[in-house]
Inverse folding.
């Protein structure tokens, strides 16, 4: 189906910042990075799509609220409905929630301050395109950097997410314990990332693209990208 | 008629003499619009009229300097066809009134200076000074400023990787907010008036945000006069930043430059369109026909002088040849930015300005931009330092453990995590080291090079001796860069002072320039440009003379960067340099003894140079496992910080015959603490001896305990607790 | 015809409102200890060209539910003001 090297699209919205880093991470991990423009509904036959971090449209009105109406999202939605792997990082996660492609919403950090730090994440399930190479319970080191990363949903929605195994990552202590001290933004149940019901769309607030190069940070993102590239190559 | 005119020029900040000069230049009385333009352009902030003659004495040349003072930012050649563009600016007055927006627009402004040189911004640093955090207003200012810097810097995607924060009572009424930006450009792509020639008939294209009433008279009203009570009335002068527009502006500008579409690029900052158009014309040695009706406005009804002096943010002015105009407008549109041709370059020197079909001003471009007044203001020495003995002579019987805890928890020394975690240090993916390192280290893409960046100011030293304060700032910045293994290359500066109309302040300024000059010559770090912030005083309270230095250093191979914290257990700890009985201006004297007196530590520039060269040589030979410079708080703090950063404790025997408290807390210059593998000690010792740098092996790293042999001991955990909890506690958080 | 609307957007009750809590916590330091249940929301003003009031309002309803608010976490209220009324 594909040439042997998975093609991974990374969308640039006006105000996207970590698009370059995501493209570079794809390349470093052995994939072919494909830059996608927000105004182009065609996603050019890529094998996976990444919505990167940043401040699309300045985060004005609500984070991700305006980007979700970008023309490229038509292509993303169709791709997701076909079962294609879609990864939303930070602002990308926010866009996917606003689009209804992922449940819940992200609001301002409980401290009301932007937080940039390395955190530990516990993998909750290997049943997603970014965690196939990982084991539930495994702890990864990845940075977060956001002002609006508090994951919320109403009581019933959260219960359903937990029950269906749709939580993919949680903030934790180095030994995997979930507690308030290691939750950087007050997210419900320490949720750092979720998947959709079908399991092909994943969003997380931490930045795996800043965690593949040991010279500039931790390396917890390597296995996420490795999993994604494997899944992308396997085809839809 | 004459009486009305006089009042107007004074309200715009012009003296009677300056008005006379304008009349002579024009050959007639200036009209209202012309007065407004001169008022803005000849303000202290824009014209540097009180500082120029002194700034000229700073060394600004060097084999690596590509662009010195006088352009929008300085530039240094770092090899492999790469130029580094950098500059520091202040935005203190607006931040005192509206801390978030004042700081945010400060970031916006300095970033635009960098891109106007054709460089992509890759790092921000923020040296800040506030009053003590025990005061609620200072906590409010700190919170607002940090949120503003983060809010703007994070949103435009430039990592904030370092800075420093100092607290002192004189800054309560006058916080100092300095911001430094560093950018990278191909040496062939630098936009200077030498490299890019503008032609007759070329268009001046304004692109970015629309023009409103922001900051009308901001340059002359705020920065050229001291803050009075009732600053509420100054609120309209504070601009509101739009970082989203700022980000689009970066991308659009760099795309235009890369495509070779521009003959020149200028950012709009203080004095808005007046400044950008007159400087663009003057640099091209031409005049311009400017049509204010072409300027995209945010609201209707702006008068000519308002359009001319508005400081609306996120606007740039491009010089474009006619055949390139369509392409430039297309790039602007792609990024969602408005663009308009507002002027055309014409032969001669005249700036002719039209509004609503009529000529509303006509004056010489070079008179506005280049021929501003220059003052040699009177100087009168200050006598602060002559009176009192060095606090090292005050007997001290107190508990050393408690003293260390007091110094470590002093806000000047304590962990600034509360601040730097509000800044994105990861974006762009090139940050090797950030806030928890003596100098930030940024990779240069496409090479193995690393840029080492440090910003340093020594206000307390400057208060006691302005010459030494400035020299120490340069020395410490060089040392901070050198301990990472980098070679210091050049500096930018921000001179934060009181009113130049007071002879004491002018003397402090002249002394500081002298100290900076001597240090820059000795350390071979020319000044590539900078900023002067005068009038930082209100009523009787002026800030301490605080020149802040932004140092650029180069690592040929970023992988050889030396970390700050102890690299591992079992390493030998060595002190390079010598400790003297000097507690003048030290943190210990202030916090434990309660005195700010004496003279700052001596500074022998040759010793400092020898240390810097030694560190570079040792690092290049992969000899240093870690290195940290000695500064605020002295040796005890240097060791404690390395333990806290790494988690490795140490056992150390403090060398020499000084009283223990002096040995531990003296802030003598030209010292660093390095950790070395035992088998390479002799090699380092020989290297140090060859350069005449004193060298003493004092102990070993490892374990959970921190032991000052024969004096006291504690644990890494306890020190970390004290160090990390101080500022959050002061800011009212649960710790 | 020209119509001016104001849309007030607030978080659904029960959801975490850190801004509201921060404001609630700050009021006592200014001397008001008799305030509770503080919530911070958004106010959006729109000037709409439409054939009549009913049509304008229907359009603003759709704007409010599709863009101006996120139905997952927010609810909205629409007020119509007189054109030219720029009260605080």
């Amino acid at each position: 189906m594909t040439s042997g090297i998975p093609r991974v699209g990374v969308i640039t919205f006006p105000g996207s910042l970590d698009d370059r880093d995501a493209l570079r991470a794809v390349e470093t991990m052995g994939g072919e990075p494909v830059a996608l423009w927000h105004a182009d509904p065609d996603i050019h036959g890529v094998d996976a799509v990444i919505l990167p971090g940043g401040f699309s449209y300045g985060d004005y009105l609500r984070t991700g609220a305006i980007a979700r109406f970008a023309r490229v999202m038509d292509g993303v939605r169709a791709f997701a409905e076909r079962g294609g792997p879609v990864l939303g990082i930070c602002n990308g996660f926010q866009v996917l929630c606003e689009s209804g492609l992922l449940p819940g919403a992200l609001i301002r950090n409980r401290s009301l301050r932007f937080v940039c730090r390395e955190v530990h994440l516990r993998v909750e399930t290997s049943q997603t395109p970014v965690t196939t190479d990982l084991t539930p319970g495994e702890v990864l080191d990845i940075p977060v950097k956001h002002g609006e990363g508090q994951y919320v949903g109403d009581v019933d929605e959260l219960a359903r997410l937990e029950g269906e195994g749709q939580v993919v990552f949680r903030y934790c202590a180095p030994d995997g314990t979930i507690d308030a001290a290691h939750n950087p933004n007050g997210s419900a149940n320490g949720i750092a990332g979720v998947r959709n019901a079908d399991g092909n769309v994943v969003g997380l607030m931490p930045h795996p693209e800043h965690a593949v190069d040991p010279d500039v940070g931790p390396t917890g993102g390597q296995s996420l990208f490795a999993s994604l590239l494997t899944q992308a190559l396997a085809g839809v | 008629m004459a009486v009305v005119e006089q009042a107007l020029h004074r309200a715009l900040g012009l003296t009677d003499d300056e008005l006379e000069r304008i009349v002579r230049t024009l050959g007639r009385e200036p009209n209202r619009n012309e007065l407004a333009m001169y008022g803005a352009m000849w303000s202290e902030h824009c014209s540097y009229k009180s500082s120029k003659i002194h700034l000229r004495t700073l060394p600004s040349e060097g084999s690596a300097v590509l662009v010195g003072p006088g352009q929008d930012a300085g530039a240094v050649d770092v090899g492999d066809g790469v130029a580094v563009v950098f500059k520091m600016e202040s935005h203190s007055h607006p931040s005192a009134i509206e801390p978030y927006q004042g700081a945010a627009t400060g970031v916006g402004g300095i970033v635009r200076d960098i891109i106007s040189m054709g460089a992509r911004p890759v790092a921000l640093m923020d040296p800040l000074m506030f009053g003590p955090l025990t005061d609620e207003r200072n906590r409010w200012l700190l919170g607002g400023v940090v949120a503003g810097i983060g809010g703007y810097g994070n949103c435009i995607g430039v990592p904030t990787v370092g800075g420093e924060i100092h607290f002192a009572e004189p800054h309560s009424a006058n916080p100092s907010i300095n911001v430094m930006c560093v950018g990278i450009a191909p040496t062939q792509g630098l936009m200077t008036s030498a490299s890019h020639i503008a032609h007759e008939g070329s268009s001046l294209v304004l692109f970015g945000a629309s023009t409103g009433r922001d900051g009308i008279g901001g340059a002359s009203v705020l920065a050229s006069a001291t803050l009075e009570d009732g600053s509420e009335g100054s609120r309209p002068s504070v601009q509101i930043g739009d970082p989203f527009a700022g980000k689009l502006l970066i991308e659009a500008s760099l795309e235009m430059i890369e495509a070779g579409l521009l003959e020149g690029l200028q950012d709009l900052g203080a004095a808005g369109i007046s400044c950008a158009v007159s400087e663009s014309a003057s640099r091209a040695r031409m005049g311009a026909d400017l049509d204010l009706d072409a300027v995209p406005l945010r609201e209707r009804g702006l008068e000519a002088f308002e359009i001319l002096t508005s400081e609306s943010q996120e606007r740039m002015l491009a010089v474009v040849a006619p055949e390139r105009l369509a392409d430039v407008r297309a790039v602007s549109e792609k990024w969602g930015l408005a663009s308009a041709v507002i002027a055309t370059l014409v032969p001669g020197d005249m700036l002719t300005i039209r509004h609503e079909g009529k000529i509303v001003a006509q004056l010489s471009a070079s008179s506005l931009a280049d021929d501003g007044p220059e003052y040699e203001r009177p100087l009168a020495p200050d006598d602060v330092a002559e009176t009192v003995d060095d606090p090292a002579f005050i007997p001290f019987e107190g508990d050393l453990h408690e003293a260390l805890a007091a110094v470590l928890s002093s806000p000047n020394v304590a962990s600034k995590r509360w601040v730097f975690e509000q800044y994105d240090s990861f974006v762009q993916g090139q940050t090797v080291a950030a806030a928890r390192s003596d100098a930030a280290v940024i990779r240069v893409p496409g090479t193995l090079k690393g840029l080492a960046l440090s910003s340093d100011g020594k206000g307390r030293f400057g208060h006691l001796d302005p010459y030494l304060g400035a020299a120490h700032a340069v020395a410490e910045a060089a040392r901070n860069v050198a301990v990472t293994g980098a070679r210091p290359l050049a500096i930018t500066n921000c001179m934060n002072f009181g009113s130049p109309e007071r002879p004491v302040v002018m003397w402090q300024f002249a002394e500081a320039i002298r100290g900076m000059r001597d240090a820059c010559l000795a350390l071979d770090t020319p000044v590539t440009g900078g900023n002067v912030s005068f009038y930082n005083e209100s009523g009787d309270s002026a800030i301490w003379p605080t020149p802040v230095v932004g140092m650029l250093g180069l690592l040929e191979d970023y992988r050889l960067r030396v970390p700050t914290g102890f690299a591992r257990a079992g390493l030998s700890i060595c002190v390079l340099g010598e400790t003297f009985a000097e507690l003048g201006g030290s943190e210990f004297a202030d916090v434990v003894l309660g005195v700010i007196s004496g003279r700052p530590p001596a500074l022998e520039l040759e010793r400092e140079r020898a240390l810097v060269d030694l560190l570079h040589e040792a690092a290049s030979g992969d000899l240093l496992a870690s290195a940290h410079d000695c500064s605020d708080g002295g040796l005890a703090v240097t060791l404690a910080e390395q333990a806290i950063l790494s988690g490795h404790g140490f056992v150390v025997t403090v060398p020499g015959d000084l009283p223990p408290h002096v040995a531990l807390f003296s802030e003598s210059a030209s010292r660093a603490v390095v950790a070395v593998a035992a088998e390479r000690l002799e090699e380092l010792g020989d290297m140090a001896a060859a350069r005449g740098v004193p060298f003493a092996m004092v102990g070993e790293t490892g374990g959970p305990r921190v032991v000052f042999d024969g004096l006291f001991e504690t644990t890494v955990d306890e020190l970390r607790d004290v160090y990390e909890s101080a500022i959050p506690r002061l800011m009212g958080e649960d710790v | 015809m020209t119509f001016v609307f104001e849309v007030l957007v607030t978080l659904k009750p029960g959801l975490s409102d850190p801004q509201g809590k921060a404001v609630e916590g700050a009021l006592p330091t200014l001397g008001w200890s008799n305030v509770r249940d503080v919530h911070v929301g958004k106010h959006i003003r729109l000037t709409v060209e439409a054939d009549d009031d009913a049509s304008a309002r229907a359009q603003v309803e759709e704007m409010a539910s599709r863009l101006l608010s996120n139905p997952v976490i927010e609810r909205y209220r629409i007020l119509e003001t007189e054109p030219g009324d720029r009260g605080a």
